[in-house]
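User: Thanks for the earlier help. One more: Cohesin subunit SCC3 C-terminal domain-containing protein. Can you show the sequence and predicted structure together?

Assistant: Of course, both are below.
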Amino acid sequence: FNKHLPKYLADNANKAFLEVFLLLEGLYADEFDLRLERMDDEDVNFNDLSDIELFQNNEKELLLFTIKLKALMKLDLLSSKVVSRISLNKDIIGPLFMKVIDNSIFETSDAPVIVPQHASRNLNPSNEQNVHTHNSLEEDNNNNTFSEMIEQSSEL
């Protein structure tokens, strides 16, 4: 199996993955007016992101892309810089992102999810279970659950 895979991805591939991640992270942060931490060497200017509407659901795109990056991490194909960078703002972005970073997204729990204040815009009292908010990722426009969306993305 390993003899068919490269031992690492080329630097330009790592850079491209990081740039896409930074864009998605910036779009999500702009939507919720979050102030993100940045690395010293990041040459990023996302001041005009509010004018860009690439996706209907920035959170979904960020989480799905991060899950795909995590798969590359498990194969040891990403640089350590990319690996450390994607977890830099896990405490700021929100509980679902933190679960993706901590590899606990598919664990079940009876404990309520603590939702950060910026995510309170997604409240929907009719869908309260053990989660005190309705997350935009709970269902997409096709009524797919988040777990179904993740399974579909892993088939790509």
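User: Great, one quick takeaway?

Assistant: Residues 36 and 89 are 6 Å apart (CA to CA).
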